[in-house]
Amino acid sequence: MAITSNLNPIDRSIRGVIGICIMAFALFNDNLIGDVFIEILLGIFGLLNLISLFSGWCPVYQLAGINTRKH
Amino acid sequence: MQQIAKIKQDKSVRPRLIWACLCVALLVSAIYVTVSYRLTADITVRSELKAMGHITSLVSNELSQLKSQAIDAENVDLILSEILLSAVNSPAFITVSTPEQQWHKNLLISSNQRSTLLQLVAEAEDNAEPIELDDNTFLWQQRRIGQYQITFVQQTQALDLTLEFVAKRLLITSIIVFWIAVWLALTLASVIARRAQQVNESLAYIATHDSLTGLPNRLHLIELLENSLGPVTDDTDTPVDEGCLLIVDLDRFKEVNDSFGYAAGDTLLREVARRVSGLISAPAELIRTGGDEFIIWAPDYTIERAKTLSLEIVNSCNSPILINGLTVNSGASIGISHYPSQAEDTAGLIVCADTAMHKAKAMRSGWQVYDNKKIADYKDILQLRAELSDALARQQIILYYQPKVDLATGEITGAEALCRWQHPRLGLLGPGEFIDLIEHSGKVQEFGRYIIATAAAQAEQWHSEGLLVPIAINLSPYNLLDPGLADFIGETLQRHEIPPQFIEIELTENETCINIDYIQSALAQIRKLGVSLAIDDFGTGMSSLAYLSALRVNVLKIDRTFICDLTTNKGHRAIIAAAVTLSQSFGCDMVAEGVETQEQARMLYDMGCRAAQGFLFARPMPAEAFHDLLTQQQPQFSNAF
Lengths: 71, 641
Hints:
Oligomer: heterodimer
Distance between the termini of chain A: 21 Å
Strand content of chain B: 15-25%
Shape of chain A: elongated
CATH architecture of the largest domain in chain B: Alpha-Beta Barrel
Strand content of chain A: under 5%
Shape of chain B: elongated
Largest sheet of chain A: none
């Protein structure tokens, strides 16, 4: 599957905000979370959202055949 | 076809699947959080109880080390204070009781609270369940050593700690789990929906396509036409301004099937389908409607363009196809109907094209365009067909009578009963306008019986008035296929008390496919009743000489085509002369039909024909008029020639 943008700008920016917040939370609140495993999970989650922000592409949308860009 | 459209349009599966997956994900997350929380709380309570158990053991150990005389309030208080202060850091109290005495030590707890808690502990069944008091949670341990009962109650922070400690992680984890579940839901739903869509599409394809040629089938055609014709009603409509519908029927498919087998027939169909498909281009579509019949729906085609296409198709079907090493050409007949000038709906277009196709087949002309002028509007035909059953019930079919005249004397020797439909809307209809309908309506036998009964009733009436005129009834061979016909005629004659010689059966026939053996036996039964038999329209249709010998009829009625140009056509004169000789040899009478001039009558008489009917004498007339004619002074037509 080719990586072509499938995200609507709004969708993309919401993901961006979520991604940045989560990355920040995961990186700077070690003592609040208190578990490395959860930090890693959050990190992945945030990273994927950041990828969506930069590329405008969501792998799950691609798999599911959803495209919010058109609408 | 509406169902097929539904299959195609059903897109509700996907959102439903997504919602179902999301709900399941939420439910799983909730269950997971609850169970994890309870599990953690349980473990914490147990470990705390265990720790409290150690403290009560410590107290009991200390107490047991005291000498019995040293057990007084001071010592016990000291022990309890030491233990409480060193090992406990939350509100708690320890009570040591003997049957005689009771010692308490409180830590950050009031005496009131203590006594309430003691009471609650006394009521509690076991210590696994914490005791709730004033929004605080308390755990307790009780131990009995000798005469001492030690009760240790401590306020616990375990549940709050657990909530605080675990909830954070659980919440984050469950968000992540939920997020994964959403992923899964989307992916699963789309995969399943896509599969379902594929299945639907292949089902719709199977339902609308012919398996042999791969062409669309009738269902597809109807859906296509419904979408193309008339005003737009929904978003699948693609209306056209005009278009032609062509019905292509192979002329020799049956022969190929019969002589080379079904496999060869299939090959032929596939080849024809391939060739015809090559001749048309989108948006025109070739559809196989069954057997050897194809339909082409050509949107935006004018009749001229359709004619050109038909010519190409006919030529293509006439060029040989190689089957089993033999060349076969299937030939094709094409009927063309035009939208919207000839019909405006699906059924109309198909009926028109079908009518034209049959005409093309009959005329061997390759193709025909539906002709409004020559063929009555199919709607009228359909309506007449519907009214036909009513017509019989309401006795709208009446009989007209045309006299048969003895050429020598001018006397009326008989009457031919001819049916007319007294139609309430269209007036009097001749047999030409409805006999075909009857023969194709499955009512032909009922109709035959109706005519026989009506004629017999008339014969009875005339008979009772002393008018001894035999009535000839026209029956088609389809009537003779009625197994009870001979019995019915016998009963009718008996009921009306008519001698059998007053009824004559005339066999009209244009088609020759009826089983001659069966007809012969049916006629033999009728003849046994004493009813005389005649062959109508002799010289045409089934009246081949072989039949003439086999059927042993009493009367030959020579067809009007030979009479009308009798004076000028030498060939027809020769045929009439031969027929006269033939009738004399078979010992049967001969009647000439359609006599219109005195010259014709005289020539017929000279040739040896003794009886005739035709406009020269009288047109068919209602029973009353015929009755008047009969009661005139005889002979009625003495001045005919």
